[in-house]
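Listing S7. Sequence submitted for prediction.
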Amino acid sequence: MKKGASYLRYAACAVFIAAAAWTLAFFVTREQSPKTVTAERADVTLSVLAEGAVWRDETIVVCDDENAYLAHKTGDTVSGGGVVAVPEDMQDAYFEHLALSGGAPPDKIEMPSLTYAPQSGIFSTFVDGLEGASREEISSAEPFIPRGAVGKIVSGGWYFIADTPEYGKFRTGQSVYLSLPDECAATVVSAGDGRIVLRCRACLEDVLNTRRAAFKITLSEAQGIKIPEKALHHDEDGTFVYVLRAGIPERCGVEIIQTCEGYCLARENEIHENMQIVLD
């Protein structure tokens, strides 16, 4: 009996020692295993929110008669020399002429008292007194509305001028997009001294009656592998991360295409989705 009991005690002791050894090995291995994160594919949009002024090529239309009939409404396209306003005492003759001519407007010789468009463009009744300000002055000019102003003619494209501390993210000639009802393409004319100037050739109708505006400006959109900044390493051969292959850290070169807050986006070539990136 004593011999059997002694054997059982030896066996129990051996099991305990083996379990203790396994537990110690587990914690040692766990402590030595590097902390990792799984590489994920991500879409990143770099954008800036800026508030500024809209500048256009604008010419005020003046008519001395406050009861004048306006031949166009806001948003209408007007040809240079086309009738814009008709004095009250000329309205009967004006409408009679339209009826007899099948809608053809009278010329300046027949009815010199009419107000004609000084240039071709889009008509608007919105007048704020900044129509005469230059692009450089638009953000600080004092408004002046001349007596008898009934509207204005707007032609060409338009500019967005904004003071922003993020001007350094822009470069001259860069293509960006403004957040209007639809995205509007724009070109960076200049970016410096805390100010950006963007030129837009389309979407004039969307800002026809706008002077001050806040737009989200999209600078770039990119897709790649999202990598935490703390996982990046640099040396004379370039930028790289360590990834686990069969449990062993291995160097993997990366090409950074965009830097964001706390992480960056790398082109998917050597690095790809589902790799285990070492953070330590």
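Caption to Listing S7: primary sequence and predicted structure tokens for the chain studied. The two ends are 57 Å apart (CA to CA). The longest helix spans residues 2-32.
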